[in-house]
Amino acid sequence: MSIHEQFAQIAREDGRAALVTVVQGPHKGEKLLVRIDGTSDGTLGDPELDAQGKADAEDLMWAERSEVRGDLFIDVINPDPRIVIFGAVEYAQHLSALARVCGWRPYVVDPRARFATPERFPDALGVVAAWPEEAFEQLGAPDKGTYIVILTHDPKLDDATLLIALRSDVAYIGAMGSKRAQKDRRERLLAAGVPEEDQGRISAPVGLDLGATNARETALSIMAELAAVRHGRAGGRLSQSKGGGRIHAAAEAK
Amino acid sequence: MKDVIEDVDRWVGEGAQVAIATITGTRRSAPRPPGAKMAINDRGDVSGMVSGGCVEGAVIEVADTILNNGGEPQLLTFGIADEEAWDVGLPCGGEIDVWVERFEP
């Protein structure tokens, strides 16, 4: 199977990999495919270049960014980001709908089987009626491409989810809740052995400050925060940004 | 790759020759990021895009040469600073590099 075809096959399976191509110099056109498990195929025509390409590929595969480094172009493919929403509540319905529109992969988890039904969440790619630990067994372990949003108001479920999330390297952990609920949560997590500095990873309350007045707008504010986090942005208004509203600036930053 | 894979698979299945154009770099303001792709076959069909329609014509010409005359892969640069700015360039004022090569199925 050609290197191109192997890369295409990983793209068809929605996998993660990098195709390194020499775009300048004597080895122009040579290719090296690097997979997520560290294995590779092909050669850039020079062992040093291969080692460099492999290191660059491993670096960029999780950054989910394609770029030129030296004479090499590292072309990265990755699955669409995954949102695991805890709490089969109304916000979760709207958030999963918005996630699909934006090309993300939403899943809904809630141990209360009466609420966690596929009928209530037609836009979710999966609805799991289970506690977090079992849910992640079914959905696949949390990884750097996973965003966790906790929308329950049930401390037991919140804490069970947070303890798993904080042990993982997920891209984002957000939790809904009032100031009071956050204070209580902080104390419970401290008691469970999670130090303050680790709790700093939790975004609470979730969302950007849109002044949302209904569940759909709240879901929009959460989706907007997720997109901003994914792209390393603060999430302000383009018209008031330093670049004078340069809408394509993201391409430059990459 | 995902943006053009369905069309590429179909074309290859029909026995067509296929070239792929990939954005490798952007400077200043550019509409699509590195990795974005356009696929072109030897019958003149096109899938996907590398800009907002500003430089596609020039990319297709290079792809044609690669497919029909056995040309080598090429790294192209487009920008407003080009001599050709009046017919090929990016109105948003940016520059893009595009790698064009034959897709080997």
UniProtKB/TrEMBL annotation, chain A:
Signal peptide start and end residues: none
Designated name of the protein: Xanthine and CO dehydrogenases maturation factor, XdhC/CoxF family
Domain of life: Bacteria
PANTHER family documented for this protein: ALDEHYDE OXIDOREDUCTASE MOLYBDENUM COFACTOR ASSEMBLY PROTEIN (PTHR30388), MOLYBDENUM COFACTOR INSERTION CHAPERONE PAOD (PTHR30388:SF4)
InterPro entries: MoCofactor_Util/Proc, XdhC_Rossmann_dom
Residue ranges of every copy of the XdhC Rossmann domain listed in the record: 83-226
Source species of the chain: uncultured Solirubrobacteraceae bacterium
Span list, region Disordered: 235-254
Pfam family, one: XdhC_C
